[in-house]
Amino acid sequence: MKKILIYIFSIIISVFIGIISTYILLNKKSNLQNIASSLVYIEASCNDVKNSGSGFVYKIKDDIVYIITNYHVIEDCTDIYVYNSSMDKSKSNLINYDEYTDIAILKVQGNLNLKSANIGNSDKLKVGEEIYVAGSPLGINYSSTITHGIISYLNRQIQISTTNGNSLLEVIQVDAFINSGNSGGPLLNKNGDVIGLIFVKEENLHGIGFALPINYVMNIVDKLENNEINRPNLGAIMVDSLNSELLFENGIEIDNISGIVVLHVNENGILCKSGIEKGDIITKINDIEFNNISQFQKILYNYNVGDTIKIQYYRNKKFYDVYIIL
């Protein structure tokens, strides 16, 4: 009798586990399939040229839909329209943007039957993990397309060009198929949670795609919503120490020292007031070394206006330290 009871109990436990597992799997699948209700296709008019890309809803408040996309999708554009998966169209307004990270946020009055995407956690990702890319890879006729792949690399550093120079970003590298229309769309995990923001500024990269980690993106979005993006400006023009052409054009000769070279300082700029001059080589910020302008900016932009930092620079065979207030 005892053996029969144990046998029956084990069957009940197995059935229970099976039901729970099935529910979890179906729920995960449902979340992934439901991402279409959070996706938008973006069309923007920019000086007689039409840009297009993707975006996703990150929150809805007081009947206003808030959307994340790439800044380069709507850069210098006047008329910006978003479409839902049913091709319903609505005009949107740009709330704010950060060119350095290529992030922009839009808003639309009325929900267009859209829903907020589930925002995941990008701090716990692993190489080899399954991912999905959602968006409109080839325009409006291919909206809500989902492609599949894996995470190929984490914390990959890539350089993107902006109107103010280059910026260095740490991104998630994936092997899923990505096209220019995917710009601004979400990178998803197998549960359908957003773990990254896709951006495409280079064509003909097959088997290689990049996304900004969503934790980093949401931190920028929070600052954009509160107008807290205020990057330090040192008031100077600088160049990589290996850029021999620009150094020659500016009549600057340097020793074999890694860092960035000051080409010009503005009269009322921070560096001018600190005593740094044309031809000086900046080598460290708060004892952190860098080899080029992009690395220098990445370190500098970790600090806020009003912070005090220590800069090391090289002049006439000697190193000097100076403290400056940003």
Structural summary, described in words:
With 326 residues, this protein is of the alpha+beta class. It folds into 4 domains: 2-35; 38-109, Beta Barrel (Thrombin, subunit H), CATH 2.40.10.10; 123-225, Trypsin-like serine proteases (Thrombin, subunit H); 236-325, PDZ domain (Pdz3 Domain), CATH 2.30.42.10. It has helices at 2-33, 71-74, 214-225, 244-249, 270-274, 293-300; strands spanning 39-46, 49-61, 64-70, 79-83, 89-98, 103-109, 130-135, 145-162, 165-174, 186-188, 194-198, 209-213, 236-240, 260-265, 281-285, 288-289, 308-315, 318-325. 33% of the residues are buried.
Short description:
The chain is an alpha+beta fold.
Spatially, the strands of the biggest sheet line up as 1-2-3-6-5-4
Helix content: 10-25%
**Counting H and I runs of at least 4 residues, what is the number of helices?**
6
Unreliably modeled segments: 7-28
Shape type: elongated
Class computed from helices, strands and strand pairing: alpha+beta
CATH topology of the largest domain: Thrombin, subunit H
Q: In the CATH classification, which architecture of the largest domain applies? A: Beta Barrel
Instruction: Supply the CATH superfamily name of the largest domain.
Output: Trypsin-like serine proteases
Compute the CA-based radius of gyration: 25 Å
Number of domains: 4
